[in-house]
Amino acid sequence: MRDPVLSSVRPTLLFYCQHSLGIGHLTRSFALVAALTKRFEVVFLNGGRLPPGVPVPPGIELIDLPPLGMDDGHTVVSRDGKLDVVAARAERRRLIDDAVRRTRPAVLLVELFPFGRKKFATEILPMIRAARRQPGAPALVACSLRDILVDARPDQQHHDDRARWLTDRYFDAVIVHADPGFARLEDSFRPTRPMRTPVFHSGYVVPAREAEAQTPRGPHLLVSAGGGIVGDTLFRTALAARLLRPEPLPMRVIAGPFLPEPHWLALQQLAAGQPGVELVRHVPDMVAELRRARASISQCGYNTALDLVVAGVPALVVPYQTVTENEQSGRAERLAALGAMQWLPGTELDPVSMAAAIERLLAFTPTPAALALDGATRTADILAQQLSHHRLALAAAHVPEAVS
């Protein structure tokens, strides 16, 4: 256990990340952490399952909370075989409280909340209050937010107004990980009253990569769906569409670590009768896979979309979409309008439509999307600058050791 004051000249940053469905939030957060460690001592509260094959950034303290997630009905479920939801929540509160008390963070960075993760408010709000009341000086509290928010909830106006109130009450900054020329917070967040909390657009967050030599593209289609938890329909449809061609193309399917095991076994049986199909559970470098493929078929989550842009691969995206989940569709439509990729609405996902879309894809050359991709470094710069302003303001106000 280190002394938070004496261990380093770098201030401590406590990062709370609750990834509930896939791995996109965790992937983006780990990419941020790699940049944040250059300026901060990072302690990372991981609220979901840590999938196999996903490396933890070096130089951080990782605290694995008993993993919770969401099922298809948006009900909180335990991903820990030993603890039910009630017991997991209690143990999480204990670990979070201990982390705040022990580290006394200069910065508390909260991923998505209060713009999402409402069902985790019972642990997030006490964490924020504790960090604001800690001995020494209250923490700077910031929100780490993706580019496009869900804006199709039945109670959307109430949701936005509540998020605005919580942000103004508890947060010192909101950092939107987007190129403001492509997507801005106000595009998908519309509270009745304007938000007072400062908003910064950092640019998109992509993992740091070393320069790579040009890789010759292979003959195969690459099919993927992020973590895979909601990828079964896409995989099955792609395999069925493949058989509608007179000469089926080779296909490599990356199922993802979270594809449910029954779906994985059924997918293996389905592919067993199709020569030229390769199934893989997980790969360490998706961009490298995309650069080797003739074309890609995928969903359109934040990280997937950026991987496609970085790889420059001809891509067809089929956004994950429900009555209340429209974030991926908004991103797909915008990127398609730039000529960066093609898209097929989830409502049109059937073998015949996909087969026709694949034919169009094979003749498609993407237009490079000129997006700012330095969001990780910019986020670290923004937080360091805001912390400096925060400390100056506290000193000027002579803030006592405990604040509400």
Mean pLDDT: 92
CATH architecture of the largest domain: 3-Layer(aba) Sandwich
User: CA-to-CA gap between the ends?
Assistant: 27 Å
CATH homologous superfamily descriptor of the largest domain:
Glycogen Phosphorylase B
Brief characterization of the structure:
With 404 residues, the protein is an alpha/beta fold.
Structure description:
The chain has 404 residues and is an alpha/beta fold. It has 2 domains: 12-206 and 373-397, Glycogen Phosphorylase B (Rossmann fold, 3-Layer(aba) Sandwich), CATH 3.40.50.2000; 221-362, Rossmann fold. Helix content is 37%, strand content 15%. It contains 12 helices and 15 strands. The chain has helices at 24-36, 85-103, 121-133, 156-170, 185-188, 232-242, 261-272, 286-292, 302-311, 327-337, 351-362, 375-397; strands at residues 12-17, 41-46, 61-64, 68-70, 76-78, 107-111, 140-145, 173-176, 199-201, 221-224, 251-254, 277-280, 295-298, 315-317, 342-343. A 7-stranded parallel beta sheet has the order 3-2-1-6-7-8-9, sandwiched between helices. The chain has a 6-stranded parallel beta sheet with strand order 12-11-10-13-14-15, sandwiched between helices. Helix 3 links the parallel strand 6 (107-111) and strand 7 (140-145). Helix 1 crosses helix 12, helix 6 packs parallel to helix 7 (261-272) and helix 8 packs across helix 9. The radius of gyration is 22 Å and the shape is globular. The protein starts with 11 loop residues before the first strand and ends in a 7-residue tail after the last helix. Residues 1-7 have low confidence and may be disordered.
